[in-house]
Amino acid sequence: MALPLPAHWDPDRIEEIRRVPYEARATEATAWAGAHDIGPAREDVQRVALLLVDCQNTFCTPGFELFVPGAPDDSRRLCEFVYRNLGAITQIVPTLDTHRALQVFHAAWLVDAKGRHPEPYTVVSTYEVEAGIWRAADPEEQGNLERYVRGLAERGRYRLTVWPYHAMLGGIGHALVSAVEEAVFFHSIARNSPAAFQVKGANPRVEHYSVLGPEVGGARNDELIDLLGSFDAVVIAGQAKSHCVAWTIADLLSSYLRDERRLAEKVYLLEDCTSPVVVPPAVDYTEEADAAFERFATAGMHVVRSSDPIEDWPGVAASARA
User: Fold this and answer.
1) Structural contact between residues 109 and 102, judged by C-beta atoms closer than 8 angstroms
2) In terms of C-beta density within 10 A (0-12 exposed, 13-18 middle, 19 or more buried), how is residue 219 classed?
3) pLDDT tens-place string over residues 123-169
């Protein structure tokens, strides 16, 4: 049964960057759990994970580097989903896109024949790298750059995109949206279930859309794959629908190809808590995002809305009775 929203929740503050009053929220969360008979997560009969993909200021707050239109409303609905389903969510797994200045998708990494860096949202093809139209600013990285763009083409991934500097480690943009952070903290205390934070993106030579591994090469995050596989249901939301959300879901499916349908049927995609990258007139990935979600639904995943109680989702109530 859906719970009421706690007194501290204020949807009008969703775009604010503020300090979360942890001590007050911890006291309130403990009292909230007692008032609504919410037990610790370890007692859950049906275990539900909520995977929050990159709900950070850099993507979700207006004025930041890679703001996704629609993200504030997504964040508002996401927070309300957490509060209303506090007793059903066993653990929250937030991912954090994490970067430094010198990485392959930032302008400083690339130069043209005259030594000029590319503009943000420049899309770099294999041909342009091999022809020297774009090359590594550090000559020692040229071979790595060529192998990387070829690897993207071979794997059918997006071509290398020069993104604005974003999700910079230690910066405000790297932090979770304050309201989302508050909801995650409140859940952790109320359910006695620490959030399982996942950091991604540290390798400077590759893009890292999926939390389960980089675009090309590198080790898969088998520990996270096993963690998510241990739950009875995995709910996924966050930013952006066209990139980090889509590739994380795709990688999750490919990691369980031997039993893909079994995994797919326990994944629930919150379609009203994620939006695609749209930066007029440079890029618009709406069609790619929608096509990806159609593929996921065809694979057996459930596309649901945050306003629908978890117990009403297909498969969840049946599992709870089993």
Assistant:
1) yes
2) exposed
3) 999 999 999 999 999 999 999 999 999 999 999 888 999 999 999 99
User: CA–CA separation, 282 vs 304, rounded Å?
Assistant: 30
Q: Is the dihedral of CA 255, 294, 14, 284 positive or negative?
A: positive
> What does the mean pLDDT of the chain come to?
93
The single-letter code of the amino acid at 137 is A
- Which tens digits make up the pLDDT trace of 16-42? 999 999 999 999 999 999 999 999 999
CA nearest to 246, candidates 224, 275, 225, 220 = 275
In the sheet that holds 233-238, the strands lie side by side as 198-200, 91-97, 48-53, 233-238, 267-270, 302-304
Tens digit of each residue's pLDDT (9 = 90 or more) over 85-137:
999 999 999 999 999 999 999 999 999 999 999 999 999 999 999 999 999 99
What lies within 8 Å, CB to CB, of 179 at 6+ separation is 13, 14, 16, 75, 76, 79
Residue with tokens 């009008």: 12
